[in-house]
Specification:
The chain is an all-beta fold. 3% of the residues lie in helices and 51% in strands.
């Protein structure tokens, strides 16, 4: 092309300048550049363009992919972001010479392909499972984790995380959608969730279908063993569980001349354990206590008042005196001689040394919790004041005289105190529940002055534990499931959400008691009702973070 143009110019010049001289032509070589490429498909939307041009030492390239994007690589790889026909052009440059090559690439409107993987540190109850979305040609997603126990087992995140509260096999479903949800694809995968080795259901009685057992207390023993106290209304059992949660045969204790027995509290003392409650014979009820040694071998039992004069007695808690004897608190009701909050003093062998000591003689008054204090005892409970209940707190000296500076009533506060837990720096947590099953904790000093007060809506508290590491843990029931929660001991504020657990195949469960373990964790005792309406006991082992 360049040579013809020069010849034309030279001829024209000769016509105008004839005889003036001749036109000199420098030799210009032909353009030697050519453009050529082939297309290799990587996937539905990605292609590699292999440059096969005849190239000189100074050749360069320009690519136009027909979708508004350009490239200058020799053999580029390009991903098209939308369907359609794209006219791809390669231009080769060498000095003033150029050459073009063209081809058409068609991107189909690809259907989405749903696919995913799962990963986790453990595939166990309450262990977070990560779902990795590897779907193709999709821009939105819908997950169904297949958990029938939850109405929230849905997510639209690309890579969600989910934890299952019960063991079992769950069918996880991922739906992947194209633009405007014109097309979709579904992938399913089964996820098998196991229950950790130390999460046991068990019975110790001979008639678990009719004699409803309830864990009354639990404590860490030696060499990783755990001691469990269990009562079913007719018999109390003292059992030992090994480090793996296997429960050994239990020592059984019957209420003797009484027909039924109820346990209100379980207390570890210097020489073993004491269970306190009441036993009935006909219409009469007496306070009652069992004692076991430090190996959970049954030693003796004693009624704290013989029910011969009619009425009701109940023992709620026990404290050990400096002399190794025991001081019980509870109530006396509808008796000819007295009503109200009472104290009963016994010897170390539970033999009652005096009949009853009333320190708040009003009908409906009940001393629910007693705790040793430097120079006496702290007592908490509640009493009826007309239609409302008043929470109350007392400090008693060693001779059981009331300290007038520490007798506190909280008016029309429906707060049913069940326990006193010593915190740090002379602060005590009064633990219980409001009407309607909502937990409540009020902390005071030894004089009853308020430190903080916190309700816990929807969480019924059964017991609290202040650990040697300075943690306040409460256990109970929330939403029909065994529940536990860690609280800030300085404010009562929850440290994270309550953790819930329901054994596989169970309709409901409750955590009734808690004890610390030697490794800094916790062990919970509780009960659950299965699909056959049978009540079974629970042992749940938690780590230092309150996790299963």
């Amino acid at each position: 092309m360049k040579l013809l143009n020069l010849l034309s110019i030279c001829l024209l010049a000769a016509l105008f300048f004839a005889g003036a001289g001749s036109c000199h032509l420098d030799e210009i070589p032909d353009c030697a550049v050519t453009a050529k490429f082939r297309v290799e498909q990587v996937d539905d939307t990605t292609f590699t363009f292999v440059n096969e041009s005849d190239a000189g030492p100074d050749i360069t390239y320009s690519w136009n992919f027909g979708d508004g994007t350009l490239a200058t690589e020799t053999s580029p790889t390009h991903k098209f972001s939308r369907p359609g026909d794209f006219f791809v052009t390669l231009t080769a440059f060498s000095g003033d010479c150029t050459a073009d090559a063209k081809d058409t690439v068609t991107i189909a409107d690809a259907r989405p392909l749903a696919q995913f993987n799962t990963s986790a540190a453990c595939f166990e109850v309450n262990c977070p499972i990560s779902f990795s979305n590897t779907s193709l040609n999709a821009i939105s997603w819908a997950w169904d984790f297949g958990d029938p126990a939850s109405v929230e087992d849905r997510d639209t995140a690309k890579n969600p995380v989910w934890a299952y509260p019960r063991g079992g096999t769950y069918s996880v479903r991922l739906t992947a959608y194209s633009a405007d949800k014109r097309d979709s694809s579904v992938a399913t995968r089964n996820v098998v969730i196991t229950v950790p080795t130390f999460m046991k259901t068990f019975t110790v009685g001979t008639n678990p279908g009719t004699d409803i057992e309830a864990v009354a207390g639990i404590d860490q023993g030696v060499a990783g063993d755990y001691y469990v106290a269990i009562c079913n209304g007719k018999v109390c059992f003292f059992a030992k569980a090994d480090a793996g949660g296997t429960v050994s045969p239990a020592n059984a204790v019957t209420p003797g001349v009484f027909s039924t027995i109820t346990v209100n509290n379980f207390k570890k003392v210097s020489s073993g354990y004491v269970l306190v409650g009441e036993a009935s014979a006909g219409a009469n009820t007496a306070g009652y206590a069992f004692r076991a040694n430090s190996s959970f071998q049954f030693q003796n039992k004693q009624s704290l008042h013989l029910a011969t004069e009619g009425g009701i007695d109940a023992a709620s808690d026990v404290a050990q005196t400096d002399a190794g004897n025991f001081l019980f608190c509870g109530l006396a009701l509808d008796r000819p001689d007295s009503n109200g909050m009472y104290l009963v003093h016994t010897t170390a062998n539970l033999v009652e040394s005096w009949h009853r000591y009333l320190f708040h003689a009003e009908p409906g008054a009940w001393a629910r919790a007693i705790l040793n204090y430097d120079s006496g005892y702290l007592v908490a409970g509640y009493k009826q004041n007309g239609p409302v209940s008043e929470a109350c707190f007392f400090r008693l000296s060693d001779n059981l005289a009331l300290n007038t500076n520490a007798n506190t009533f909280w008016g029309a506060l429906s707060f049913f105190i069940d326990d006193i837990v010593a915190l740090q720096n002379g602060v005590y947590a009064l633990v219980g529940n409001e009407g309607g099953g909502n937990g409540r904790i009020r902390t005071v000093n030894a004089n009853g002055a308020l430190i903080w007060d916190q309700p816990y809506s929807g969480f019924t508290i059964k017991q609290a534990l202040f650990t040697t590491g300075g943690r306040l843990v409460v256990v109970g029931v929330a939403g029909g499931k065994a529940a536990w929660m860690e609280l800030n001991p300085a404010t009562g504020a929850p440290l994270g959400n309550a953790k819930l657990y329901l054994p596989q195949g169970y309709k409901s469960a409750v955590a009734t008691c808690v004890a610390g373990t030697t490794d800094g964790g916790f062990i919970l005792g509780g009960n659950g009702i299965n699909a056959a309406n049978a009540t079974l006991n629970l042992l749940i082992k938690l780590d230092q973070n309150g996790e299963l």
